[in-house]
Amino acid sequence: METPLTRNITLGKMPPDFAQYEKAGGYAALRKALRMAPGEVMAAVKEANLRGRGGAGFPTAQKWSFVPMGDDAPHPKYLICNADEMEPGTFKDRLLLEGDPHQLLEGMIVSAYAVQADVSYIFLRWAYKLAAQRLEQAIAEAYRQGYLGRNIAGSGYSLELHLHVSAGRYMCGEETALLNALEGKRANPRAKPPYPQVSGLWGKPTVVNNVETLCCVPHILNHGAAWFKNLSRSGDGGTKLYGVSGRVKKPGLWELPMGTTIREILEEHAGGMRDGYQLRGLLPGGASTDFMVADHLDVAMDFDSMQAAGSRLGTGTMIILDDKTCPVGMLHNLEHFFAQESCGWCTPCWSGLSWVEQILKGLEDGKGQVSDLERLQSHARLLGPGHTFCALAPGAAEPLQSGLKYFGDDFDRHIHEKRCPWK
Length: 423
Hints:
Order of helices and strands: HHHHEHHEHEHEHHEEHEHEHHHHH
Strand content: 5-15%
Number of strands: 8
Helix content: 40-55%
């Protein structure tokens, strides 16, 4: 099994510096891309069927294709790496940032070339201090070696790349809120259209891609679209970083073929549940995805299969709910986080999430009423897609609506016993 994204990463060891990365084949994809037309690079990524690894799964090359090209295209254009990884339970981008920063830089330069971007930013989560140190070192090395700056490798193409450390809010991960934050404004989402590819950072064409997405790009250029698609067990190309957290024997992160089943990830790689604990449910792709239960263990972890099963792949990093943890308490914890992280821009989000959080707290405190269940159902519907400016509230509604569906008996016990049965 090939693991291109993590091939240079050894836990406990320093990441490869420029010389080590280049000796291992690094920057070959960049040199190859610079001999191609930008449209050919884009076509190779399209043929590989690379879909965004940040959660939405939008086809990467299609996203790039909306950027104006040609002599009349506005400049400067921007390419931004979204490294503001704040999804609860998610730590996949951190591994790539700390373990192989030159891989990300190469992916960014190749991707920037494909859309003819002039300036690029890495928008980094404030808490990723070690990643910031290693990225700064890698960026400096790339500039010294002529792979960043003016006339990269004598190609005539130029790119400036900067590291920007986030202000530290979950909202900054939403791409238009990220753009506002990068401009020094409050991190509120923007109305769309216009979309960032046409009018993004400072009103100029901008592409925002996730860390893992960009890290896939050099390997597609080096080995071809057919190779990339063959890495996968599904129609979505490539490998995927899958993670598991919770009461399992070996919580962690693994690079596996896209489409690996939940059962294989949980039982073979994470070692199954700890002794004395049983699986009750799981959030497959971070906190903002619908719960799945034991009946879903054989579902493939890819974008289409997860959607067909009633959830989302999201970030591909599972959070496990065991049989000794209160589902209502877990939901209260999650909704408290989402309510706290709402930017306050639209009423359904700031008001609705606060209300949900208070109802769940009341249930945990033994003050719940039967009518609370109807209110929670109503909020789950009203916080859904189409009612808010961005995906924060719809994401918060996913564990709520599925928690009500799968753990209804637990809600009833809180109400009728006037207490949390797990306390």
